[in-house]
Every structure is written in C-alpha cells, then in structure tokens.
Amino acid sequence: MTEYGDEAAAQELRELRELLERGTPRPTAPVDRMERVRAKVVRRRQRRTAGAAALTLAGIAVAASLVPGPAQDGPVLEPSLPAASRGIVPQPASTDWSPPDVPKVGLTEELKAPSLAGLLLRTPRSWRTSVVQGPPALAFAGPPGTALPDGEACDAGATGRCAPDRDLPAGGVLVSLRLRDALEREGRNVSPGSVQDLRGERVAGSCRVMEGTRELVVWYATGRPKSSGASGGTSGRDGGDGQDSQDGRDGYLEARACLRGPSPQRLAEAGSILKGITFQKTGTPGNDPDDSHTGHPQQTKGTTK
Predict the structure, then answer these.
(1) pLDDT tens digit sequence for 1-34
(2) Region entry Disordered: which residue ranges (predicted)?
C-alpha cells in the first residue's frame, strides 16, 4: 500500500473513533452516591472508635490486675464496697501550702490582740483588721474590697464563727482567728504552724457560704491556759468532735484564710500572714481591756475605734 493509502486509512480510523466516542453515552453517577460515601465514612469512624475503646478497657483491666493486693499475714477483715461503688469520690488529703512564685510579701503592719492569748498579727500595709471582743474573742483581716465582720453581725455562739454581711468578691480573702480548747478533726495530725491548703469539699462550710473556693488553715498552741471564752470541740462545720490539748491546760489559736479565686499575690499574702503569727510575751488573755494595734482600724462589739 502506498504512503497515500496509509494516511487515508489512518484518517478513517480517527474519524471512526471520534464517531464512536460521540455516539456512546457517558454513564452518570448514582443519585445517592455521596450519601453512600458519607455512610461508609461514618461506619469506618464508628469501627475505629469502638476498637480504641475496647483497647483502653483492656489496658485498664490489665493494669488493675497488676496492682498487688493487701498482705494476708494479719487477720482477715470483712470486705467493704469501694468508694466508687458507693457513689463517693475520695477526696485527697489536705496538702501543705507552698508559697507561689511572687515577690516576697512585706508584713509591715501589726495588730496586737491580748484577748486572743496575746496574738500578734502582721499584715501587708493595705490590709484592714478588726477585733470582736466576744465572747468568744475573734479577729479578722482582709485586703481592700473584702468586708470584715463586726460584732453586730456575729452569731458566734458555740461555733466561734461569724461572716461578713456579703459574699467575698472575686479574688477576695478573709482571715479569721479564734481561740479553741480543742482542735478540729483536720488538725489532729498536723504540726503547729503548718499551713494546710484545702480545696473542694474540704473547704469549711463557713467559707463556702461566702462563695469561698479555697482555704488555708493553721493552728498554734498558745502556751496559755484555756480561756472560758474559747470555742470547744464542736467544729461548727460538720459536727465533728474536737481533741483536747495533750496536757489538758494549753489552748489553741486557729487561723483560717477563706479565698475566692485568689491571685498568686493574694494567696502569698494570706499564707504569709498565717505563717507569721506570733504571741506577745507578757500579759494574760482577757486582762487588758482593749486590744492595741498599729495602723489598723479596730472594732469592739461592732464599734470602730
């Protein structure tokens, strides 16, 4: 075949191919094609999630089986339901307070309260303090913006507690101090002067009622006879019983700082105040008619002096 014949045949083939391509209809995608794709993706995700959950449960079961059980050398005790089975979430023990990383707090002002076993309370310059003579005698301290209780608003009675007439503001702190003849349940295994950091359900009800979210607590042995105006063993929070002082003679001073979302600076100030509590060397509780102070307003039975 000549060269011309080859070119003509090739041309015919091309025309025939184009004719066939134009005449053959293109298949269209099914109407529900996207729905099928989505359903396939959903099924794949469900299978993946179910597999991950099964793997997690298997890991937890293996870890639980590796935890050693209690030694059986001693007497066998009756089993009890775990806390989770009873619907009770175990609360962590109170922790020792650690100062936040802020500049050192300057405690430049002093409140002297002979009626509180010779209490000497040091606070930052901007803080306010007050004393309610009682009985029982109480002292309070707070930064600007925090209302302090007065004698008229206190219904201390057997609990030895009273609160301001309004809630703590955001970032507010209220420090309260009182004498005790017995320790709260939480203080029995805590050394004097060791500030405890309480949160959640461990915060006292008297703090939570003021919208407090955190509480610092410390106690000191006053080295003085128990005062007739001191609070007894009833906690006033959960009805717990108190613990008498070991020698039956010395009383205690309990200090609590109720905080509502404190900043690191306010937290450092409250903890430093509680750590800095001391007692005057002379005088006997109740012998002095008035409590002396330096640079602070003072209240007696709700009257500012």
Answers:
(1) 555 667 888 888 888 888 887 776 666 656 666 6
(2) 224-305
